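quick one
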Amino acid sequence: MRLVLVLVMALAWACSGGGPAQDAGAGEVTEVAGGDTRDWVTPGPDWQRRTVFYQVWVRSFQDSNGDGIGDLPGLISRLDYLEALGIGALWLSPIHPTPYADSGYDVADYRAVNPDYGTLEDFQRLVEEAHARGIRVFADLVMNHTSDQHAWFQESRSSKDNPRADWYLWADQPNLPCTPGLQFGDSAWKWDEGRGQYYFHQFYEGQPDLNYRNPEVAAAMLDVARFWLGKGVDGFRVDAIYTLFEDLPGTPEDQFICGHHPLTHAYLKTLRQVLEEYPQRASLAEVWGPTGTTAAYFGDGQDEFHLALSMDQELAIQGALMLDAPSLLAPKLTDTLGRLPEGTQYATFLSSHDWPRVMHQTGNDPARARLAAVLLLTLPGTPIVYYGDEVGATNTTAQVVDKRDGSRAPMPWTAAPDLGFTTGTPWLAPAPGNETACVAAQDQDPDSLLALYRRLIALRNRLDFLGSAPIRVLRPATSTDKLLLFVREAQGRTLLVALSFAKQALPLTLDLSALVSVAATLELTSEAEVPALTPQNAAAYQVTLGPHGYAVWSL
Ligand code: GLC
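structure w/ alpha-D-glucopyranose:
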């Protein structure tokens, strides 16, 4: 199953520290996110269901010292921009020391900050400054594996009888039938000369899997979580969580399960208990799997994750955008929601550090990119905006680690060759198109993509039922397969969304009489003119949407 999913991921591309928490050090710990008294963008419990997240690839967001690498002081200097965008939470890519074999998802020290990015003090300042603007901060927690440079692994590989000998998965023969994903190599086993054994790695060979059957490992990683929670982070995006446990040859459970192991769920419940030790924290699972499998990571709704990335829905959105075929998406919309425990929801996204950028998915078509933005911010779930998508940043062909670098190019702040990102040479060659796809060019333009994102996020913040409210896809009387028409309803409030996936103008006659009992408020549209929608004309409401046009009303 996992191989299939990694294949899907690859296809998508083809188209386009150790001790207990107390060790943190007296005076360093800042317990800041008690929550209720702060002026959060999204206040109160369950904030994670009502807020808009923004994913930052720290290395590419803003450089402050001219070394061509984005850093935490640079990110802090851009917080005003993020506040104006209206987002309520940040998710940061891993910020730890790393040999960069997997772009930072190979962590060499969980309790330190990569010197390229700054210091622990910079991180604390980032949390404080973000919180002062009402923005919460999620860290990326990479639990399944460490870097082969991590002190734990160095010790483990040193002999068969050192105290951490059993912290990783060692074997005399490469005998687990799991295989890594395509881009991670052809064998999940790597011979280690020092130890005289093979170690197991689900991802790159520089990312040895930790042995979670060892209670010391299980406890050490919970302490890592406590360390960062103590620094004020508001939660974690937890990396590749379905890979934590696998069956070892010779164990009683030996069924050769490589992912989605039942023991993983038991362990995740202990992670949730740690989160519960701190007020108003939340968690986001990264699970590669079909909806049913992913939903299992919510547990009973209270004991595993709060949110989970919906890979299924992302693929469906991508397909619908690429092929102008909303029928690929419509069935998924109800499907992804139908089976969730109360209080949980998916996180919806269009692109990420693992996926091509929206502009790439839409064939660099600005109208489709606008449609995608409306989709992202009106669908159910917690939306995550990937840095730069809000100005239509494109993919770069440059590559340092692997093909996924395509969507990790420096943030286009200005039209200058250095993008306003650095005074030095960017660590990854910029993506083309920043003359217009940049913040400076769009900031003051009310018709820009950036302005649309700001309006959509403001709408989302105002109508905060949009995260959790159900979706109802309507079947319009007009015969077309290019229209996606849906409503989002809660507590007597309704949002009506009409999206055209047509390349030409799409004239529509819609029977909306069951919905419209008072005149509707037009919230957003791509059109110069949209006729008022009233009880009088709702039975045969006529509107024409332009190519990839949209209209959004509240009722
Ligand atoms: C997750 C990350 C991906 C990384 C992998 C291994 O899927 O999103 O970037 O390569 O885990 O850590």
